[in-house]
């Protein structure tokens, strides 16, 4: 039996989640919650035969026993209000806002955190793209400082991102340290209005131990890229990681990694890799929760279930 | 909104020490023009953000004594700009702002903030260090990412400027729409910013007129000009004639690319155009020559091939020195990097793409 999932928020993120839930073997899209009866997302969900309401989160809370997982795709402010209500209602919450009520989960790095938590935060799109690279470096050497630059197409930046750009930079910086393992972190976001729209780009810079073995970093990064590709197929290195001895502050070695993220084209076009990477990561977290709670499709072993869940997206 | 600069003492334009000033009709006769100097912010690009507190005291003190109205002090890419991507500062922004605060008596002290790079927390620290004005800068189509910072600045009691970078990339009407967003979010002044030094006087005039028509004559409008096509001062003058009431410059033209309109040249040109300012032109010329040229010896901007190509291709001026370094590191042509960046339509802040392009031009492939 699959996990019954509710998505709160019927904007771009919520709509993309619904499409990905439809494809999962471990998860079922059971309800989409919005507040605007005219929402395109609600109409699309209904057309696909999925229950949708514009009457807000109370509809979900009143029938909480019909659902297992809730994806929050609203705003940090709304999630801060909703989080204790989900907990009380016994729902497992995956938070795609920058509210950071629960600990950060970045599937390629710390998916095991899913066990034993009831509320997990998905960091930010830029965090999902870059934290794995910082973690890949910090597992082979000390990262004194990590800095990331995420450039996204203006068209892929919704009103929530635009109104709260500081939340993006602050939450991402925090995750570079807490999940990536850097001693200090800094995040930068740039919006580019070019037409045709640019693909999401992410650059990771790190100041590391002067005597690091460059090959160890390159091997670790390649391994991590493969781990992310398991749930975000459009994630790739643009070039080989650049390692410059002595080019960082105080004689540290500078590592530069250039990444591109193409979206799966579920709800928005492929250029919106920023949307895809955070929804794909939250699906991966929910699927791990499904497996850990024994919701594996009949006939599949635990490990096979996990593979089946990710394979079809590759 | 004009109430934000009520305490200025304007003086009548100075006659040229050499030539009679009454031999031509003066296009700015009777106009009061404010001067903002950004030597210690945009000019920081020329010295790779290595200004020290002592430099700030010398330059800001000189600017203040010479009657400049606004003095901007920050990393070239604004608060929080110190980074791998934009270059690490020699000293923290807050220490430099504190140094300027200690010597400025009359001018207003400003900081730059680019949402996405700096945050409201950075702004609060700058406020605590004594800034009077914050200039919130976005790409010319992305004004709506400045709202939380403009609102936050107003709550702190700061004077606010909305700074529309790369204004050459949109037409006058769209620029006016973005200016309106910033005005509605609480910007006391909005700026047409030619970050790429890509505009000529007629394009500046079209944009200033469109913004003015949309926002009305009571709105303060500013112009920030770069010199990549050799028209920095001419663009500032054209903007003033079209209704701008504050113009940016930097001493000796320090700044990204071929640099900004030089403040001391601007002061002289404003005099010769009949404008009233509070600047003592001859004193300002001395500050440029005796202080800035000394501190920045060997680093003064030039209108060379690289900076000309920035203006010609419409590329963010700050890319110049980063491009020069990447060209040397990867053994590829500076000009080719710049032209490829133009083709990719990169915008301000995307300095990481310079290395990306250099790697591509160097033919470094991913191993199979």
Automatic annotation (TrEMBL), chain A:
Ranges annotated as spanning the membrane: none
Reactions the enzyme catalyzes: acetaldehyde + NAD(+) + CoA = acetyl-CoA + NADH + H(+)
Top-level EC class: oxidoreductase
Enzyme Commission code: 1.2.1.10
Name of protein: Acetaldehyde dehydrogenase
Positions of NAD(+) binding: 10-13, 274
InterPro entries: Acetaldehyde_dehydrogenase (IPR003361), Acetylaldehyde_DH_C (IPR015426), NAD(P)-bd_dom_sf (IPR036291), Semialdehyde_DH_NAD-bd (IPR000534)
Gene Ontology MF terms in the entry: acetaldehyde dehydrogenase (acetylating) activity; NAD binding
Entry annotated with the keyword NAD: yes
Domain named Semialdehyde dehydrogenase NAD-binding: residues: 4-117
Keyword Repeat: no
Family: Belongs to the acetaldehyde dehydrogenase family.
């Amino acid at each position: 039996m699959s996990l019954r999932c509710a998505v709160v928020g019927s904007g771009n993120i919520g709509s993309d989640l619904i499409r990905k839930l439809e494809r999962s073997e471990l998860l079922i899209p059971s309800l989409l919650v919005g507040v605007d009866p005219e929402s395109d997302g609600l109409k699309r969900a209904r057309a696909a035969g999925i229950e949708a309401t514009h009457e807000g989160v109370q509809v979900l809370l009143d029938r909480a026993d019909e659902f297992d997982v809730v994806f929050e795709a609203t705003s940090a402010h709304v999630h801060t209000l909703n989080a204790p209500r989900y907990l009380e209602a016994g729902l497992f919450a995956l938070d795609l806002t920058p509210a950071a009520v629960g600990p950060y989960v970045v599937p390629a790095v710390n998916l095991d955190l899913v066990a034993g938590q009831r509320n997990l935060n998905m960091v930010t799109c830029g965090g999902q793209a870059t934290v794995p690279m910082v973690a890949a470096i910090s597992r082979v050497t000390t990262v004194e400082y990590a800095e990331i630059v995420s450039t996204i197409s203006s068209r892929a930046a919704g009103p929530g991102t635009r109104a709260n750009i500081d939340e993006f930079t602050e939450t991402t910086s925090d995750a570079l340290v807490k999940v990536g393992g850097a001693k200090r972190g800094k995040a930068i976001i740039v919006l580019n209005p070019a037409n045709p729209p640019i693909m999401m780009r992410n650059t990771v810079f790190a100041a590391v131990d002067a005597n690091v073995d460059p090959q160890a970093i390159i091997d670790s990064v390649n391994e991590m890229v493969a781990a992310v590709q398991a749930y975000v197929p459009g994630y790739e290195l643009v070039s080989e990681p650049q390692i410059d001895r002595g080019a960082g502050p105080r004689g540290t070695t500078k590592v530069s990694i250039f990444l591109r993220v193409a979206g799966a084209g579920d709800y928005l076009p492929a250029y919106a890799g920023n949307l895809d990477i955070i929804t794909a990561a939250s699906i991966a977290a929910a699927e791990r929760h499904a497996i850990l709670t024994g919701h594996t499709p009949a006939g599949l072993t635990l490990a096979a279930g996990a593979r089946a869940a990710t394979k079809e997206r590759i | 909104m004009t109430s934000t600069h009520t305490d200025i003492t304007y003086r009548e334009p100075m006659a040229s020490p050499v030539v009679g000033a009454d031999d031509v009709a003066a296009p700015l006769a009777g106009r009061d023009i404010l001067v903002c100097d950004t030597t210690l912010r945009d000019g920081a690009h020329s010295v790779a953000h290595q200004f020290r507190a002592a430099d700030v005291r010398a330059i800001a003190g000189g600017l203040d004594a010479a009657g400049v109205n606004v003095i901007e002090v920050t990393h070239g890419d604004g608060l929080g700009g110190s980074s791998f991507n934009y270059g690490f500062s020699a000293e923290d922004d807050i220490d430099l702002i504190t140094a300027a605060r200690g010597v400025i008596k009359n001018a207003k002290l400003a900081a730059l903030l680019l949402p996405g790079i700096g945050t409201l927390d950075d702004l609060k620290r700058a406020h605590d260090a004594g800034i009077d004005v914050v200039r919130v800068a976005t790409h010319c189509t992305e004004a709506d990412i400045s709202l939380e910072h403009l609102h936050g600045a107003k709550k702190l009691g700061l004077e606010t400027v909305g700074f529309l970078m790369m204004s050459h990339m949109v037409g006058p009407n769209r620029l006016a729409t973005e200016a309106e967003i910033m005005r509605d979010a609480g910007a006391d002044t909005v700026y047409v910013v030619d970050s790429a030094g890509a505009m000529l006087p007629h394009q500046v005039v079209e944009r200033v007129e469109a913004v003015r028509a949309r926002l009305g004559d009571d709105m303060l409008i500013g112009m920030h000009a770069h010199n990549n096509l050799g028209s920095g001062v001419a663009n500032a003058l054209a903007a003033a004639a079209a209704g701008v009431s504050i113009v940016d410059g930097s001493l000796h033209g320090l700044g990204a690319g071929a640099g900004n309109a030089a403040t001391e040249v601007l002061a002289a040109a404003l005099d010769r155009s009949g404008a009233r300012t509070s600047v003592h032109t001859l004193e300002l010329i001395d500050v440029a020559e005796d202080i800035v040229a000394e501190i920045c010896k060997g680093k003064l901007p030039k209108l060379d091939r690289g900076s000309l190509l920035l203006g010609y291709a419409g590329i963010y001026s700050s890319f110049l020195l980063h491009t020069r370094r990447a060209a040397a590191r990867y053994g590829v042509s500076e000009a080719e990097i710049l032209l490829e960046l133009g083709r990719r339509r990169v915008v301000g802040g995307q300095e990481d793409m310079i290395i990306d392009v250099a790697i591509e031009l160097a033919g470094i492939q991913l191993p199979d």
